[in-house]
Amino acid sequence: MSSLNSINSVLKESRRFKPSNQFVKTAFINSAKKYLELWKKSIKSPDSFWKKQANESLVWAKPFSKTLEWKLPHAKWFVGGKINVAYNCIDRHVEAGLGNKAAIIWEGEDGTRRILTYNELLNEVSQCANALMELGVSSGDRVSIYMPLIPEAVVSMLACARIGAMHSVIFGGFSSDALADRNNDAQSKLVITADGGFRKGSFLSLKDNVDEALKKSSSVQKVLVFKRSDRACKMKDGRDYWWHDIVYRQSIHSKCKPFDSEHPLFLLYTSGSTGKPKGIVHTSAGYLLGATISFKYIFDIKVSDTFWCTADVGWITGHTYVTYGPLSNGASIVMYEGAPNFPDWGRFWSIIERYKVSIFYTAPTAIRACIKAGDDWPKKYDLSSLRILGTVGEPINPEAWLWYHEVIGNKKCPIVDTWWQTETGSAMITPLPGAIVTTPGTATVPFFGIEPEIVDKAGKPVKKGHGGFLVIKKPWPSMLRTIWGDDERYVHQYWSQIPGCYFTGDGARQDKHGNYWILGRIDDVLNVSGHRLSTMEIESTLVSHHAVAEAAVVGKPDDIKGEAIVCFVSLKSGFKASEELKLELQTHVAKQIGALARPDQIRLSDSLPKTRSGKIMRRLLRDIAAGKVSTQDTSTLEDFAVLAALRQDDDI
Ligand code: WT7
User: Fold this and answer.
1) In whole angstroms, what is the distance from residue 535 CA to residue 552 CA?
2) For atom 8 of ligand 1, which residue has the closest CA?
3) Does the Cβ of 310 fall within 6 Å of ligand 1?
4) Which of 324, 423, 436, 538 has its CA 20 to 30 A from that of 646?
5) Quick check: is 148 in a domain?
6) How many domains does the chain divide into?
C-alpha cells in the first residue's frame, strides 16, 4: 500500500445546494431525516431491510428462505430463491400492461433512429435467446459481447440472462489482443459482435478485430454478427452467423427458466494493480436488487421519466444504469452510439431536446470536455425537460459541478454524484436527490444498507476530517462474489488488507456534515476518463516492444481526462531515442490495449531512477511528469542520474 500523503485533499469547497421545494414535493425520499431513519434501520437490521426490499422490488419464481449466508468473505444472498433476471427486466412490465411503453430509444451516430417498446424488446430478447441455444449455448456458458452501443448489445445481455449464460461484455474500443485475453480467461464459447459501429464519423470494423482475436482464442466456437452497415464483411463458413439470418427466424416465445439466486449473471473485466485484468463475477438476485433499488431512489424514477446514461455497455455503469437498473424499473432509456462531438459539440444537448430527457447521467470527463467546447452549444438547445443530473467515474471538480448545475441544469436540477465500482455492482455513496443537501465535489452519504468507514493502515478509524482508506464494513447484495478463476486473489485483494472489511482501494475523508469526499485510487491504477487502467498492464505492453528494456507508467493531472498517461521508458542498447520511436510506442500501446490506453507522453531515458533496493521511484516520476521537478523536457532523452542521487531513500 502506498502512502496516503500523496492524495491528501486540497479541496476547500463548502457551498451547499438544497433540492427545491418543488422537487421535494414529489420525491420518494423527501427529507434528510427520512433518509437517515431508513439508513439507520438498514444498518441495524440488514436482514429485515434487504428481505423487504427483495420481496417488494423483484418478482421471484420461488421465494428465498434465508436473506444472507455470510462466511467471510463469501456471501450468498437470498438463499433458496429462484429468479429470472430477464423476466424482471422485461416480461413483468409487459404483463403489467406496459408493453407499448418505450424501453430503448436509440440514436446512431449516423443519425439512424429506432425505438424498441417493451413488447418489441421481449420479442427480440426471446428470439436472441432461442438463437443462442441453437448455437449451442446453455446455462453456465460464457458469451463474449463485443459490440457498438446499439440496442442489440442490451438484447444480447438480456438473452444471456434469460437462458442463464454468463455474459462478458468487452468494450468495443478495446483491441483484438484485449478481446483475445478476455475470451481466453473466460473460456467463452461464443462471441456476439457487429460488422462495426460509428464513432467520430468513422466506421470501426469490430468484426476484423474479432477475426484477429479468434486466431488466439480457441475456446470460441461460433460468432454471431449483427449487421450495422452496408459495408462488405468477411464471414467464415460454419463459424460466423448473421444475426438477421439466425435470430429473426426464431420464435418470439421463449420460456423463462428460473435460476438460483446465486446463479452467475455476468463477468466484467476491470484493471487491478497486478497487471492482469480481473474478471469480476456478479450473480443474479443480489446484483439485480442493488441495481433496481439504487436506480429507483437515486434517480427518483417516475413513469413519465426518460433516462439517459451515456456510458457504454462495456463498463459496469452500462450494465447497471443502462441495462439492468432502468429496465427492471420499467423505465424508458435513451441510448446513443457515438461521440459527444459528432458532428459537433451540440450532439448531447440535441438528444436531450429531441427525446425530452428528464434524467441525464454522465462522467466528469465528458462534462469537462463540453465546458471546453463552450457554453454556446448547450445554449442552442431546449434543456428544460431535465430534472435530475448525475455523475460517475471519478471525483468531479467544483468548477465542472457548478457549470453542470448552472448551464445544463438551469440551477433547478439536483446533481447526484455517485461513487461506486465495478466490484460494488451498484452505487454506494450518493446523494438522494430530494433529501440530501449537496456540495460540489462530494459523493455525500452512503446508500441504504451500506456502511462505509475511513481507516488507517492498521484498520483503525481515522479522526473525522482526516484522510484514510475507504472500506465497507458489511456485505451488500450487489457485491462481487469472486474473481473469475482466482478466488485467492479475491480474498487477498478485497478482504485481507483490512481484515473483515471490503477494501475499496480508494482514499477518502469525511467532513463535519458526514459527507464522504473520495480522494482517488491509492494503488497503481490510473483513472483515465473515468475508467480504471492498470499501470502494470501498460508497462508490460511497452516492454513487449523489441526496443524497450524497462518501463514505468504514471499518471499526470489532466484538465479533461482526469489523469493523462505518462510513460518513462528505457531502451535496449543499440536503440536510439527519437520522436519516431516515441510515436511508434504510443501506437503500440493503443494497438495492444485500445485507444483509451494510448500514452499521452513517452519519455525516454538511459535508465530509470531506482532506490537502492531496486524499486522504481514512482513518486519522483510522478513529480517529473507533473512538471514539479525541472528537467530538460525538450530533449528526447532524460538523464535521471542526478535526480536519482538526490532521492536515494525515497522508497515509494
Ligand atoms: C473507481 C471505480 C463506477 C462506475 C465507473 C468506474 C472512481 C467512481 C466516483 C465518484 C469519485 C469515483 C473510484 C472508484 N470513482 N465514481 N463519484 N467520485 N471517484 O468504475 O472502473 O470500477 O472504477 O472509479 O476511484 O474506485 P471502475
Assistant:
1) 8
2) 393
3) no
4) 538
5) no
6) 2
Nearest-CA residue for atom 2 of ligand 1: 421
Indicate if 384 and 425 belong to the same structural domain: yes
Beta strands in 324-411 (DSSP E): 332-336, 359-362, 388-392
Domain of 578, CATH number, reads 3.30.300.30
Tell me the pairing of strands 202-204 and 388-392. Answer: unpaired
Distances (CA, A) of 56 to 50, 53, 242: 10, 5, 40
Cα atoms found within 13 Å of the Cα of residue 9, Cβ hemisphere only:
22
Domain that holds residue 608: 545-647
CATH number at residue 378: 3.40.50.12780
**515 with 598, same domain?**
no
| 439 and 571 part of one domain | no
**Residues 269 and 398 occupy one common structural domain:** yes
Largest interatomic CA distance in the chain: 74
Determine the Cα–Cα distance for residues 579 and 344; give it in Å rounded to an integer.
32
317 Cβ inside 6 Å of ligand 1: yes
Q: What is the pTM of this model?
A: 0.92
Residue 554 bridge partners (DSSP): 566
Contact 392, 418 (CB under 8 A): yes
3-state secondary structure of 308: strand
Nearest CA owner, ligand 1 atom 5: 393
The Cα 405–Cα 495 span in angstroms is 38
Determine the residue of 267, 317, 420, 423 to mutate for testing ligand 1's pocket, defined as the one with the most ligand atoms within 8 A of the Cβ atom.
420
Phi-psi category of residue 105: left, alpha or beta, with phi > 0 → left and psi -120 to 50 → alpha: beta
Do 448 and 375 belong together in one domain? Answer: yes
Q: Give per-10-residue mean pLDDT for the chain (652 aa).
A: 41 84 97 98 98 98 98 98 98 98 98 98 98 98 98 98 98 94 97 97 96 97 98 97 98 96 97 82 98 98 98 97 98 97 97 98 95 96 98 93 97 98 98 97 97 96 94 98 97 95 96 93 88 87 92 92 93 91 96 93 86 76 81 53 49 33
How far apart CA 264 and CA 288 sit, in angstroms, is 12
Spatial contact of 278 and 489, defined as CB atoms under 8 Å apart: yes
Those residues whose C-beta lies under 8 Å from the C-beta of residue 21, and which sit 6 or more positions away, are none
Between strands 548-558 and 264-270, the pairing is: unpaired
